[in-house]
Design brief:
The protein is mostly beta strands and 110 residues long. The protein is 11% helix and 46% strand. The chain has one helix spanning 2-13; strands at residues 31-36, 39-46, 49-54, 60-64, 69-72, 78-83, 89-95, 99-107.
């Protein structure tokens, strides 16, 4: 019983809250990112929503925690888009089973 209580408490405290952001900013985030040599993360937009499609896996929606950091609601992870001084996204930091740098290799199309 105590283990279940601890698990429920952890779930409640780790719940993330999405904020409202201007969906126009998603334009700079869409594209392809290399997670590892066998896994490309394709970020795309549908309407006012942002999604990630990993190579050979199911698409999932990501929600803004800040203007640069997003999270999925289906598993524990964070995706932070990193911009250069001129405002272009150069890579994404993926916080999932460790911290990984995913370099942007191709811009996306809307």
């Amino acid at each position: 019983h105590t283990a279940i209580t601890r698990w429920l408490q952890k779930k409640r405290t780790s719940a993330r809250t999405a904020i409202q952001v201007d969906p126009k900013m998603y334009h700079g985030y869409i594209g392809q990112y290399v997670f590892n040599p066998n896994l490309i993360l394709t970020v795309f937009r549908q309407g006012n929503r942002l999604y990630i499609q990993p190579t050979g896996q199911q698409t999932f929606e990501i929600f803004p925690e800040s203007e640069e950091t997003f999270f999925p609601k289906t598993f524990e992870a964070l995706f932070t888009f990193v911009k250069t001084d001129d405002g272009l996204v150069k890579h994404m930091i993926v916080h999932w089973r460790g911290t990984h740098l995913a370099k942007k290799i191709a811009p996306g199309r809307e």
